[in-house]
Amino acid sequence: MSDRHFAAIYDVLMEDVPYHKWVDYCKKYIPNNSEVLDVACGTGTFTILLYKAGFTVSGIDIAEDMLTIAEEKVRDKQLPIPLFHQDMRSLSGFSQLDAVTLFCDGLNYLMDETDVQITFTRIASALKSGGIFLFDVHSLSKIRNTFNEQLFGENREDISYLWFCNHGSQTDSVDHSFTFFVKNEDGSYERTDEEHSQRTFPIEEYVRWLQFVGFHNIEVSSNFGETSVIEADDRIFFKAEKK
């Protein structure tokens, strides 16, 4: 499946995602009117919600087709949200930011621990002293159990899909195989396929890497910052402050 096709149906597949909870989580730590960079902004849904919540926002993403859709949304709503085509591992052009966000498993697309460390270094460089970095990742439990040889799917009027999860070749990684059936105007269906890989690491590793590049006052939680982490949690949230 081409990136263009995936980007075009991404928002349909993410209709039930509770973006407002990520916004509320941000509002706990980031003062109103702060300058925020949304890393891995995708089609811009969350980025726009950050702007509407009272932040000055920019966004970056590595996927050009995702950014094209985000730019259309921003333009249609006439919002002052700059968007840039950048890889988080080579983030540049930003400095003295109040906060950086990286949500909805964006960091899990980095398959090598060195890439995670490089990304943390880049983000630290973009923040001012006291700046806040907020992100989330899949938990080890989710990678090892929820995504353990599982098949998911949904049948909609215009789009149906099958999603198979298989253990990846690297430790605590998963390979996602998607098959989409998208209805054409003539009533026929077009089949397209997409492959994604993700990986996560132990909480203590993320904390150690954050500390190494100059973050402190690190808080780890689950349930959008509302509860302490337990083994069965699916998603882990991190708040870190640059020294």
Automatic annotation (TrEMBL):
Would the keyword Methyltransferase turn up in this protein's UniProt record?
Answer: yes
UniProt keywords (A-Z) are:
Methyltransferase, Transferase
Pfam families from the entry?
Methyltransf_25 (PF13649)
Residue ranges of domain Methyltransferase in the record: 36-131
Which Gene3D superfamilies does this UniProt record tie to the protein? Answer: S-adenosyl-L-methionine-dependent methyltransferases (2.20.25.110), Vaccinia Virus protein VP39 (3.40.50.150)
Residues in the signal sequence = none
- CDD domains of this UniProt entry? AdoMet_MTases
Question: What is a biological process (GO) this protein takes part in?
Answer: methylation
GO MF entry, a single one: methyltransferase activity
Q: What is this protein called?
A: Methyltransferase type 11
What taxonomic lineage is listed for the species of origin? Bacteria, Bacillati, Bacillota, Bacilli, Bacillales
